[in-house]
Amino acid sequence: MAVENDYDLFAEGYTAVNETSLLNAYYTRPAIVNLAGDVTGRRILDAGCGSGPVSKALRDKGAIVAGFDRSTKMVELARQRLGDDTDLRVADISQPLPYPDGAFDDCVAALVLHYLEDWTAPLAELRRVLKPGGRLIVAVNHPIMLPFLDRKANYFATTKWTDEYDFNGQKATLTYWHRPLHAMTDAFTAAGFRTAVISEPPPAPEAHELFPDEMAKFPSGAFLSFVFFVLEAA
Q1: Mean per-residue pLDDT for 93-122?
Q2: Which residues pair with 167 in a beta bridge?
Q3: Percentage helix, strand, coil, to 5, in the chain?
Q4: Which of 23, 84, 199, 224 is most buried, most CB within 10 Å of its CB?
Q5: For residue 27, which of 63, 58, 54, 65 has the smallest C-alpha distance?
Q6: Nearest to 87 by CA among 104, 108, 64
Q7: CA–CA separation, 31 vs 195, rounded Å?
Q8: From residue 62, how far is each of 48, 65, 127 by CA, in Å?
Q9: In sequence order, what DSSP letters do the residues of 98-132 get, joined into one string?
């Protein structure tokens, strides 16, 4: 039986493309780092760490990072990036996580939750492994995306949809779950989080020079692709 969103099948291609892509390298990662602020000495769990670029960016800022991903190949690539002394594990965010209660000051879930129909158990686990007052920094598909791509889509329904990709010659079909903004914030509240920040940031300034054709489509200098949250464990 095929596994949805099986990154083992295209881990190398995905990593290669997104090392320098607009959406990942010059939009998502800098936004996460900016929202995290001063992380010196903070223990941070990178949930769904992929090949580790967010973990490395946070470690470079002084954080003590750990990470997990469902994809064995992604974790192997993360180990190559971060070294054997970083706590990296194969684990599934939809299952109980292999960390004790209150182990982390912050958690990051960058482009992970939108693969899941039900956020209840994953958010509960992320809340469990956070210290009281700890932060969960989330990036997910902006809820405007599906109605933009499919004008017949019901914004207010939790809806499954797919998109096709070519990651450096490796073909991939990714399956997402759209949910309206209020459903996201309701899920955060139900899991014991307070929503401190909702952010729709512009890309990094250098994006205009590096991607002139793409950025020329956006005269305001900003675009909507993902929405970012900073949540505080109540």
Answers
A1: 98
A2: 170
A3: 35, 30, 35
A4: 23
A5: 54
A6: 64
A7: 17
A8: 20, 9, 23
A9: SS-TT-EEEEEEES-GGG-S--HHHHHHHHHHEEE
Tens-place pLDDT, residues 180-226: 999 999 999 999 999 999 999 999 999 999 999 999 999 899 999 99
Residues 6+ apart with CB under 8 A from 166: 172
Instruction: For residue 107, report the phi and psi dihedrals to the nearest 5 degrees.
Output: -125, 150
Give the whole-angstrom CA distance, residue 141 versus residue 160: 13
Task: Determine contact, residues 99/65, Cβ cutoff 8 Å.
Answer: no
| Reported pTM | 0.96
Residue 197 CA to residue 195 CA, distance in Å, equals 6
Bridge partners, 172 (sequence order): 165
Place of tokens 């009281």: 132
CA atoms 138, 123, 125, 115: torsion sign: negative
Encoded tokens for 166: 């070519």
| Mean predicted confidence (pLDDT) in 165-180 | 95
Q: What angle do CA 156, 183, 25 make, to 5 degrees?
A: 100
At 209, list the tokens. 């020079």
User: Within its chain, how far is the Cα of 60 from the centroid?
Assistant: 18
Pull the structure tokens for residue 190: 């139900």
Give dist(CA 14, CA 76) in Å, integer: 14
Upper half-sphere CA count for residue 122 (Cβ side, 13 Å): 22
Pairing relationship of beta strands 130-141 and 159-167 according to DSSP bridges: unpaired
Site of tokens 């991903």: 69
Distance CA 199, CA 32 (A): 10
